[in-house]
């Protein structure tokens, strides 16, 4: 679909100009300079030629249809120009001009009309407010960035034109090749998802790197990113993390979940590799572009100096990868080839006076060894060191079945080596730590690619019952669902809840208690009271009929004093739960990515330590288990120092049931089961307390 | 003292050689090439001249005494050569040769003899197994690193010659100047501490950066580093962190404390700025060398693109610094100078088409504004951007009273700008994140420099009593001190312990319980039993005389069954404690740095969450409070959601008392007060259980 955008046979530039520095001039100059072979058609009513090319007064004068129309006119003229392009049967349109959504409501309105117009004609629109695009395959620099990159296999998507130019500049300095670069600007029509799909299908692109400030549509993004990541690595730098607005939330889960966490969950689900900063984006991109994925995470380090070798080993260990142990045979074979003082461990220290041959011996050994998944080669510029020769030797013996990354440490002296390495497809980093970070990203992505197929379980549930409760509540605008109703919703989705009934007077309370057996818990039921226990609305461990009566009357008295306005439905009398570990499971609906499931250990773990994990729904059983394992308190769950562990499967099951419930009912905005009481392995966990919040009617996310 | 090393008027090279590539040749060549103006005296029995210089057969032929003798001979000849140098009244000796401690026991023995010899003559010895040293002030490259750096104010200490050369190479590429560079090698005599002191007193040195793999003597290091840091910034990259050996430890504190934590504590105490990786060492060094310390931590960001501005703001927030708010007057004055579309917040966005003048307007405003402590200037290479001119303009309006750091993002296009910046004393970083990290290091160091004077409190204690207990235990080799004796030691140091007595039979136990009042706790006392409760040796909440008798007999029965070999002293009967928060305070003696104090919240916080802090003893009250505040669980200590906080002063006091105890008694290897029960503010905390381990007699650390 994006063929006319990336591979146009003709390009019209509306707003073509003869003045250097003007966008309408520079784009044409860039197209010419880059060697674009198609027709270039300047359009400007006031000029007869631009840069030696004949100029049309209007696009409708074009004799044939134009594949790509680039509009570089003042924003007020853009709508008209788009219409003219569509009339002239443009295959794709790029609006470079700014003055749209980024300037306020009027601009947004104009932008919206342009996008609608293009969409109604099924013509893809890039921009507005963008830099344009570059394709090195057909030598097309259809942007106003003057630097045409060398051809390569990394494609770039960027929401910021400045990041595009900075990346192009960095790529030039690092001799990195680019396949395609797309500046998506305001994303009125084509957004990151569309381009991920397009580039995933592009034969020239081996790696996609992207800079994003926001995401147009969460669902679409997750789908597109998953599809793209399943074919090739997608590395994203997402800015604006800490400034993410806090939304008002009434549940624990809601308070803990923020936009930043939602992006993390969406990236994890989609297999997106996250770059934490600008350098990491380029660092990771280079490694994925040049080297194969590793089979595992066992890393071997080769160095000509002890200190940097230790730094690398430290970094490998901290990253969660493993410092490989050489096979005994490999080690003894290598021993023959290196001087006696060399260390044949991991790191392999080829010593300060190492010439290229020692690096070759060590790298060959590492590549042959089955116990090694990836290799880091470190060089420091010492008296005898020959960076360029060593680089060439490393490149010469690099087999290409395992990733090899290089860290030539230093500056001026190692620079020739660095260039040779990159030319030979070996990524070089200025420090061991950056080499390790890039390798770590690769190990994680390789693991994601090998993940089992996602199988989301569907439990048999009573969906009708939940539908009825929710519909009634939304109709009457009672959006806070308290404990009793929340529990019946959860029960309809297969959760075990303690036996209990609502009592409207003392007699009923006593009767219920007798029927279900002591001890019982008693809790006030009122749509107006959220923090029941703060107002004296909860009594636990009530052990006799008289105590039930006392508790009932006292609770009613206290509530009438402390919350005289509250409408009281009655008092809920339920069987006291046996002891167990208190955990919290919940859901908060992210405006972008929909239901995010939360898990954490109860009390201080959640409140003080923030030791919680989030995952996008729907969730598989493996992912639910993964959620438990990614908390630091997992040690407690699985048992420690003589204490038995708890029923992990029960928690995972609960998370999947919430996943199903909140996927079935987009009306649920937030849900908290807190605490969810979990017993020993084999027992079924029980919902001790729960709460939900519904969306206002009509809101679907 | 190190004058002859750094400023020799004559340098003899023993092992001078005519063969390029040999160390004895290259050092002389480097001395000549660097423009060293003193006398150079090659010494070699087999040569009459080296590199055009007349060569002595032996050092004793020298007519005058030689300030610096550099020995580059095979290790077997070094002892004899050192002796000859000392006889010839050398002022300082550098042994370049390897083949010493790093090769094993024999080498270590040889090295030790050489060091002793020099020390007995009071002649400083650098090395062996080192690269030599460089001083740009007197143009002396007395090393075999061929690259002579440009003069500057950063001095380098490195335990690895390879890191020296890598840093020199990096400095050349980044146009960074160096004052002195010292490769300390095996540190047989001169170590990091000596050189910190020397460079702290060196007028050319403004910043010290060091790469260390170990530290020769913890106490000396802390003293030297504190002295140096009090004069100028000391930045250290310490490798070998995760591979630090785990020592056998019996206390909680001992298990949690490792060499890595001890280094962290020592650096914190000494004001040392820690670099986490090779690039950070150079990054931080450059900033400290070029810019003044900030007065506070409020950072203003100036950018010509939104995305990178947001990245910088994110990084500032995450680092713990503050995104500054411009003063209203500054903001409105700036508004006049920038286009309407520019954003006058923080970041200040001067827009993509910004020419140098807009950067100047923004930087001038930021420098004038009292609400700004530091400035980060970001530039991305866009169509209209003029990196070199902008760099020159920034440099031109930089006033120098607040730190200004720059991030020119990109590569080839921004490079000319980068060079202009560095030439003008403005450090430039390739990404906003690295600029922020360097600034953060500076903010922390500035705060350390402004710390109040350290006042370690001395509490009145009964030192004699503790001395008696410890001496007796060491004499009889009973090094594990159980609860009862540990409590009496702590009581002698002013800790409150519950009232309690040792009972040797049932009758005594009942009598004690009656006397101190119910409820009581009962605990088995045996030097052979460490985990009392695991064997049924603890009963809590015993509430009557009969229950005391039952508990006594049952406990004795169980212990006789479960630990028949254990020698039983009796059963300790003590007053049950009222409830409170359980914390752990303890001490583990680090082999390098001596007593390290530990604080953490009890139970899972320590065991699972590892939420603990360490500090070197002796500790001040401020530092003790700081220890509490640096745990994540501090929120619980100070009270949260209606819960009252605990007596923070009581915990801080306890830590100071342990500090005094373990400083007074180096015989104590480990100490754990677990739990230390802390009540509400104003109450005194109580030692609920405690344990100590003594050093074997004769061991002092």
UniProtKB/TrEMBL annotation, chains A, B:
SUPFAM superfamilies, per this entry? Glutathione synthetase ATP-binding domain-like (SSF56059), NAD(P)-binding Rossmann-fold domains (SSF51735), Succinyl-CoA synthetase domains (SSF52210)
Q: Which InterPro entries match?
A: Acyl-CoA_Synth/Transferase, ATP-grasp, ATP_grasp_subdomain_1, CoA-bd, Ligase_CoA_dom, NAD(P)-bd_dom_sf, Succ_CoA_lig_flav_dom, Succinyl-CoA_synth-like
Q: Which GO terms describe its molecular function?
A: acetate-CoA ligase (ADP-forming) activity; ATP binding; metal ion binding
A Pfam family (short name) is: Succ_CoA_lig
Name the Gene3D superfamilies for this protein. Answer: ATP-grasp fold, A domain (3.30.1490.20), ATP-grasp fold, B domain (3.30.470.20), NAD(P)-binding Rossmann-like Domain (3.40.50.720), Succinyl-CoA synthetase domains (3.40.50.261)
Sequence ranges assigned to domain ATP-grasp in this UniProt record: 487-523
Top-level taxon of the source organism: Bacteria
Q: Keyword set for this entry?
A: ATP-binding, Ligase, Nucleotide-binding
Protein family (similarity comment): In the N-terminal section; belongs to the acetate CoA ligase alpha subunit family.
What's the protein here called?
Answer: Acetate--CoA ligase family protein
